[in-house]
Design goal:
The protein is of the alpha/beta class and 341 residues long. It is built from eleven helices and twelve strands. The chain has an eight-stranded parallel beta barrel with strand order 1-2-3-4-5-6-7-10. It has a two-stranded antiparallel ribbon with strand order 8-9. Helix 9 crosses helix 10.
Length: 341
């Protein structure tokens, strides 16, 4: 069975719990089964612990709509930075996010860190500090069952963990006991812009799964896929998500191809790995994206050619992709601010 859904940001002027309730209902209405949320402001260090009442409200909506929830941790975390004194906040903040997420049955996705320049860290130092910080978080939350999911980076600047090889080194730095609470999240846009995998090609996607199995000792650690197109080119190292089939991965007008994305949907379906869209499309296009994924997951028997991509529809009529989401300047600002998920 295909497990698909989207990241939904908190709605303005709505309480945190109600916003998550609305997101659960929206995902179900659009045919999805999984939802990713922020529990806290992703660009502030403060964590607002979930209240008991909030937990009850969210769990009810989760169960009534049959939705699985994932929490995305703060963007501000850089676990390559040693934690002591003033920088202890990030260990404590992730502990609290994990505690809150665990009550919702949710894992927490975090980004990779980057070298701290003023400390003249080597890449190896950065990786060791990253692992040590997360180890401290695990040690402080041994009563929890949920996992920290490490998301592959797009190799911008000194970011660690863009390649599968490096990500697997980081993963294998943890003990077998610690690994029970560590999983991996692969982001298709990051794989593409880092140059790690040319997601346009079905053969590259197949190779990705073979490599993952070898490097991680199986596919079990792969808990989630962020399923995004890219506004920038292969190997650009620039993290800018595009709506599905509208970017350099899936849009044939940008020398993209949907073949690799289809291959990825097939693999995700086979191995029951949830796909989360972080494309921030409006409800109409989000519905189109989810339907495309569902159709790619269930090929029509006897059909040898792929089902064509849906034609995009806007309120002003039909349009070819690429330009649609970028017509209104205000939306450019919104998209930029949310790019790094
Ligand atoms: Zn992502």
């Amino acid at each position: 069975m295909m497990i698909v859904g989207a990241h939904c940001n908190r709605e303005k002027g709505v309480s945190r719990a109600q916003s998550i309730v609305n997101a659960c209902q929206k995902i179900r209405r659009l045919g999805g089964q999984t939802l990713q949320i922020f529990l806290n402001s992703h660009y502030k260090s403060k964590v607002n612990k979930l209240l008991l009442l909030e937990i009850e409200i969210i769990k009810k909506a989760r169960d009534n709509n049959n939705i699985q929830i994932t929490v995305h941790g703060k963007y501000m975390y850089n676990f390559c930075r040693p934690s002591s004194g003033r920088t202890m906040w990030q260990v404590e903040a992730l502990c609290q996010e994990l505690v809150d997420a665990d009550q919702l049955g949710a894992n927490v996705v975090i980004h990779q860190g980057k070298n701290v320049k003023e400390l003249h860290q080597s890449r190896q130092d950065a990786k060791e500090t990253y692992v040590n910080n997360l180890r401290e978080v695990l040690n402080k939350t041994t009563e929890l069952k949920n996992q920290i999911l490490l998301e592959n980076s797009c190799a911008a600047g000194s970011e660690i963990g863009a390649s599968l090889v490096e990500l697997s080194e980081i993963y294998h730095s943890f003990s077998e006991t610690e690994k029970k609470r560590i999983g991996i999240c692969l982001d298709t846009c990051h794989l593409f812009v880092s140059g790690e995998v040319d997601i346009r090609k079905r053969s590259s996607v197949q190779q990705l799964f073979t490599d993952f199995e070898q490097l991680f000792g199986g596919l079990e650690p792969l808990k989630l896929i962020h399923f995004n197109d890219s506004k920038t080119k292969f190997q650009s190292k620039s993290d800018r998500h595009a709506p599905l089939l509208q970017g350099y991965i899936g849009n044939s007008q940008l020398e993209g191809s949907e073949e690799g994305l289809r291959g990825l949907v097939e693999q995700a379906t086979k191995w029951q790995i949830p796909l989360i869209l972080e494309t921030h499309s409006d409800d109409d296009y989000l519905s189109t994206e989810i339907n495309w994924i569902i159709s790619a997951a269930t090929p029509i028997p006897g059909l040898t050619t792929p089902v064509p991509a849906p034609v995009l529809t806007t309120t002003s009529g039909t349009a070819t992709a690429v330009t649609v989401p970028y017509q209104i300047p205000r939306r450019i600002i919104i998209l930029k601010r949310r790019d790094n998920i």
